[in-house]
Amino acid sequence: MQIKVIVPATTANLGPGFDALGLALNLWNEATFACTSDSSISVTVKGEGEETLPKNADNAIAEAALMIYDLAGKTCKGLKIDCINRIPLGSGMGSSSAAMLTGMLGANGLLGNPFTDEEILKLAIETEGHPDNVAPAMLGGLVASILHKERVISMRLPTKANRGPIHATLALPDFDFPTSQARAILPKDVTRVDAIHNLSRVVLVTEALRTGNMELLGIAMKDSLHQPYRLKLIPGAISALKAGKEAGASAVALSGAGPSLIAFSPKEDEAIGAAMKREFKAAGLGVRIFELGTSYEGAEVTII
Ligand code: HSE
Q1: How far is Cα 129 from Cα 66, in angstroms, rounded to an integer?
Q2: Which one, of 152, 255, 192, lies nearest residue 144 by Cα?
Q3: Cβ-Cβ contacts under 8 Å for 46 (sequence gap 6 or more)
Q4: What is the predicted pLDDT for the residue at 67?
Q5: Is 95 in the pocket of ligand 1 (CB under 6 A)?
Q6: Residues of the domain holding 41
Q7: Structural domain includes residue 99
Q8: Ligand 1 contacts CB of residue 130 (under 6 A)
Q9: What's the 13 CA to ligand 1 centre distance in angstroms?
Q10: pLDDT at 164 exceeding the cut of 60
């Protein structure tokens, strides 16, 4: 028996929804899992990270899979994991959450599902440390999450984006900005002014995505809690954000902790990506552009 897992990319924060809001994107990683009897853990990778990712038990997908075996009290004799990676690594597009969920769901499938989806989600969120990539990767669509008495409550919110009319252009500069670093540079405390700035806007971001009101999205997708600190550390990011808007995007934000920027528009428009690319290039960085829809579907597991 083999288990196939597909998991989407995600964009977290959506401007003011720091550590709370995330949205699934239509870009998918795939992996197949098979038990082997030769007591080795082997991983093959095609696509993103093909050259650099570990091909043994140190691989993040394998680590997450072995965690599930451990928690289920089972021993894994041998495991072969074949991955097709489309989500760029360290990009702000949820590659680490996707890897973790892939490993957990794959192992859970091989073991006959000792854990429910809810338990897997909780475990993945605890391991990741914040819910806003893992939850939409698992559930699909736009997801809001809160911590409540040791529990994470993740809820899918209605959104017009789920039915397709909102387009996302991601500009990914060739710049190393690990999430751990991007979190470490944030101040521990926030002012009341900044808290109110974000609280009031995040409600309107969800409303704009629900109704497809792109003008409102552009007004509301502003942040005072993380973007001002992070954007200035990514060369060209401040100008690229501005250029994306000037080129016609309704709203532009840092995607997750960056370094990619995500621009939302009613339909695909090459000028938006080109404008963001120009600014990153002017700052000396290579750039990749991703033209993506959003995904109403989350992770899927099939027996093959
Ligand atoms: N909410 C997290 C952060 C997302 O901004 O640090 C990381 O992808």
Answers
A1: 19
A2: 152
A3: 83, 84, 85
A4: 96
A5: no
A6: 2-157+295-303
A7: yes
A8: yes
A9: 7
A10: no
